[in-house]
Amino acid sequence: MDFPLSLSFLLLLFSFFILNTRADLPGTWELLIPNAGIASMHTAVTRFNTVVLLDRTNIGPTRKMLRKGHCRNDRYDAILKHDCYAHSVLLDLQTNQIRPLTILTDTWCSSGQFLPDGTLLHTGGDIDGLRKFRKFQPCEPNGACDWIELSEPELADGRWYATNQILPDGSVIIVGGRGANTVEYYPPRKNGAVNFPFLRDVEDGQMDNLYPYVHLLPNGHLFIFANNRAVLYDHQTNQVVRDYPPLDGGPRNYPSAGSSVMLALQGDHSNAVIVICGGAQYGAFIQRSTDTPAHGSCGRIEATGLNPVWELEDMPFGRIMGDMVMLPTGDVVIINGAQAGTQGFEQASNPCLHPVLYRPDQPVGLRFMTLNPGNVPRMYHSTANLLPDGRILVAGSNPHFFYKFEAEFPTELRIEAFSPEYLSAEKANIRPKIETIPETISYGGVFDVLVSVELPVVGIVEVNLGSAPFATHSFSQGQRLVKLAVTASIPNGDGQYRVGCTAPANGMVAPPGYYMAFAVNQGVPSVARWIHLSP
User: SUPFAM superfamilies per the record (predicted)?
Assistant: First the structure.
């Protein structure tokens, strides 16, 4: 009789421990949308506080219908030759309402980037979308904006699993793709696609060179990483100007992808540090091994240094397919993914439900903090994006070729938001609010931001500019945070403070376009105001 009682007590104690461990970890989760209609493979936040969610087209029925009269005929679709289902939707963050969007050509594993005027440029895909340029010019939430497929120009090379990055002049470079060891530009340059042998050289027996990590450095060059190697690329001359040392720990790009981020640019904005975390072991993709443990290591390198070397450290969890999201504070959240397997359909297991906070200013060994876990597995084809209110939007997960809802890891239509600890109730009295800020600023310009805070300000109030990246396949293309030079906060009466700011010096530090401007007080960000940065 004693044994069952003891066992019951132990189970109760274990359950109590698990529940309290969850409750004690920082961050909170909320369900925003029970059914978005589609599983978002690609996600981007617009300056109108709407979110573009995009899947691939040749996937059969979704759970969202197109508007009447907007069906499409697709001879390439194996299931639906006459398709009346939406494969892209627009989410209004104010109302949580979903509006279907019309996409005509296949967007499977495509790439994107916002242009200086706020238009989302979208490139490539598969089959009839392989050479396509598309545009989405966002509008007010009650508007009728929709995808536009350009008949011309077309991509010089087909782009499937490519990466886009806006450049200092506002043009966009498109790097790589399956079978495309080249780069090209939008607007197209006269020479079309330019050979980029680096991508061919790093390809291995399972590729591992797709969706390369591309970061625009403040010296105007591009840090391009694929597999386990990186180069510094001059996009004006189309020449490699530096080779970086290899990163230990195996492949890091698709189909073995971890994730990557460039840390916040601060001070005089001349120094850039790149961090790359996680990945699959080589061979897991070829062998279709779902239980091979993922890498837990991160590499960090000062890309603009004289003699850069990789500094290695370990995350609390091994992780494949994680998303690295830059917070307004300069910290990074690593979220989504699995602890075993690789990218690809039904090729991963053991979902990594715990987000992790990476604090770059801490010493090695103290940079990672485990956060409150979610309960929705976000596996292959998941996304994570920073929202203007400081939350992280988490969407997608479809590790199946079509939509499949009866599975261990089903197609996921729910959209969630993760709130970092800085949004906790006990920090509400130090959370700043932007009262006034210019709508447009120019390079090198000086301007004031008026903020209000419930408790008196002690120390510096930061004003930081965050880009709106295009998130897909564990990498946020064009992600960037620039900490502006600011003056001390001057009291302005009634709990308000005036902060003097200096805009970035040029497009190498921050390419032209729309940014989320956050005021940050003692590590707590305001709700962002959109600001346009232009020459």
Answer: E set domains, Galactose oxidase, central domain
- 170: CB partners within 8 A, 6+ apart: 115, 116, 507, 511, 512, 513
Half-sphere exposure (Cβ direction) of 120: Cα atoms closer than 13 Å? 32
Q: What is the mean pLDDT of residues 190-214?
A: 97
Contact present, 273 and 303 (Cβ < 8 Å): yes
- Confidence check: pLDDT of 221 > 70: yes
Specify which residues 519 forms β-bridges with: 463
**Domains of the chain listed by start with CATH number:** 50-107+124-159+177-195 (no CATH), 430-533 (2.60.40.10)
- Is 93's pLDDT higher than 70? yes
Mean pLDDT of 74-80: 88
Q: What is the DSSP letter of 252?
A: -
| Burial annotation 250-284 (CB, 10 A radius, 16+ → b, else e) | bbbbbbbbbbbbbbbbeeebebbbbbbbbbbbbbb
Indicate the helix (H) or strand (E) that contains 90.
strand 88-92
> Is residue 432's pLDDT more than 80?
yes
Which strands make up the sheet holding 239-243, listed edge to edge?
213-216, 222-226, 229-234, 239-243
